[in-house]
């Protein structure tokens, strides 16, 4: 009996390597002991072994997607407490990443320090955990990338490549104004993803002031129209969380 068990174990290890499923090789003995003690059926045991492989493979894939996204740091929705008055119901819904499946956008507006980037990254992390490819950069970073592709005559190919990402995060729209060429490139990025894939954008400016950023009210209006047609827009208000504990005190002298 022992010889038969050892032979079966060796076969399982071989099959696990052949299938490139190392967690099966690690887990089948431990789960086998648990199955015998609890009286599991063969089907229940097999389901438990395969579930362990799938869950750990998904966790590993999520970690790789998060690393590839180039986030400026790891943020979570649970840690988002910069604005207690924020719409928690909507934020929780966005955390399900349903908006990605629907190719909708998310726009986060508000003054500096109100948690826009934190929330954008946290939603990106959630999307990566749900199996989506995500890529992060600032607005100026995206424009620089498109300018470089344009200079090589490969702008169309770059936009096609970026469309393979389910989510692009565009941080800090409005902090630095664009010249006309940069504004046109940014418009092409937005237009290429319209109703195809999601954008998460953060900006310190209301939509009414985006014309100042892009140097042309018409271009700004056309861009905003495509962004908000299928979008959730959150306005974050309040003082900068970075200034907490650094408020000037009254002179009592």
From TrEMBL:
AAA+ ATPase domain boundaries:
102-234
Q: Which SMART domains match?
A: AAA
**Looking at the keywords, is Nucleotide-binding present?**
yes
Keyword vocabulary terms for this entry: ATP-binding, Nucleotide-binding
Taxonomically, which superkingdom? Answer: Bacteria
Gene Ontology molecular functions: ATP binding
Pfam families linked: IstB_IS21
Report any one BP term from Gene Ontology: DNA replication
Q: Which CDD domains match?
A: AAA
Which InterPro entries does this one have? AAA+_ATPase, DNAC/IstB-like, IstB, IstB_ATP-bd, P-loop_NTPase
Q: What SUPFAM superfamilies does this protein's entry cite?
A: P-loop containing nucleoside triphosphate hydrolases
Instruction: Give the similarity note.
Output: Belongs to the IS21/IS1162 putative ATP-binding protein family.
Name recorded for this polypeptide: DNA replication protein
């Amino acid at each position: 009996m022992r010889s038969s068990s050892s032979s079966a174990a060796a076969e399982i290890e071989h099959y696990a390597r052949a299938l490139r499923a190392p967690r099966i090789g690690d887990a089948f003995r431990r789960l086998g002991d648990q199955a015998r003690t609890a009286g599991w059926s063969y089907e229940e045991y097999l389901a438990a072994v395969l579930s362990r492989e799938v869950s750990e493979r998904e966790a590993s894939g999520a970690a790789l997607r998060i690393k590839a996204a180039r986030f400026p740091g790891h943020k979570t929705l649970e840690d988002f407490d910069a604005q207690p008055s924020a719409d928690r119901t909507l934020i929780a819904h966005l955390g399900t990443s349903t908006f990605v499946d629907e190719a909708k956008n998310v726009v986060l507006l508000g003054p500096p320090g109100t948690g826009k980037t934190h929330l954008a990254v946290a939603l990106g992390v959630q999307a990566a955990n749900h199996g989506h490819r995500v890529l992060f950069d600032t607005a100026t970073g995206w424009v620089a990338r498109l300018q470089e592709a344009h200079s090589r005559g490969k702008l169309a190919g770059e936009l096609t490549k970026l469309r393979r990402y389910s989510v692009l995060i565009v941080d800090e729209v409005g902090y630095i104004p664009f010249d006309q060429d940069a504004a046109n490139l940014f418009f092409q990025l937005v237009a290429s993803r319209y109703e195809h894939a999601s954008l998460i954008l953060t900006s310190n400016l209301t939509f009414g002031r985006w014309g100042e950023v892009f140097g042309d009210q018409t271009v700004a209006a056309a861009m905003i129209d495509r962004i908000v047609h299928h979008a959730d827009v959150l306005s974050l208000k309040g003082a900068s969380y970075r200034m907490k504990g650094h408020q000037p005190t009254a002179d009592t002298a």
